[in-house]
Amino acid sequence: MGITLRELIYEYGKGIKGDKKFKAALVGGAAGVFLPESKLDLKMDYDSLKENNAVLGSGAILVMDEDTDIFDMLINVMEFFKEESCGQL
């Protein structure tokens, strides 16, 4: 708790594969919030995330590089919730 998103990705996660440029991170799992490059120095703690309308949620952080299509990512998230909605749309 309290390390920045940048530290998490580049120090603990050893960076982005192929040294590609960071585009965004989906913080908190599928129901989380997309954080852009301008939020790389955001601390990963409850208060800082709350100030940015984000939560830790499931604790998952999906990092997207320069080649990731955000629209495709949103479709994947929607498909996930379609399957996880217990048949309720």
What can you tell me about this protein's structure?
The protein is α+β, with helices and mostly antiparallel strands and 89 residues long. It has one domain: Ubiquitin-like (UB roll) (Roll), CATH 3.10.20.600. The protein has three helices and three strands; from the N terminus they run H-E-E-H-E-H. The chain has helices at 5-12, 46-51, 70-83; strands spanning 22-27, 33-36, 61-65. Strands 2-1-3 form a three-stranded antiparallel sheet, with no helix packed on it. Strand 1 and strand 2 (33-36) form a beta hairpin. The protein starts with a helix and ends in a 6-residue tail after the last helix. The relative contact order is 0.21. The model has no long low-confidence stretch (mean pLDDT 89).
**Low-pLDDT windows of residues:** none
Q: Got a strand count?
A: 3
What is the N-to-C order of secondary-structure elements (H for helix, E for strand)?
Answer: HEEHEH
Question: What topology, given as strand order, has the largest sheet?
Answer: 2-1-3
Number of domains: 1
Strand fraction equals 15-25%
Task: Give the helix/strand layout.
Blueprint: H1 5-12, E1 22-27, E2 33-36, H2 46-51, E3 61-65, H3 70-83
Antiparallel strand pairs: 1-2, 1-3
Question: Could you give a quick summary of the protein structure above?
Answer:
The chain is of the alpha+beta class and 89 residues long. Helix content is 31%, strand content 17%. β1 and β2 (33-36) form a beta hairpin.
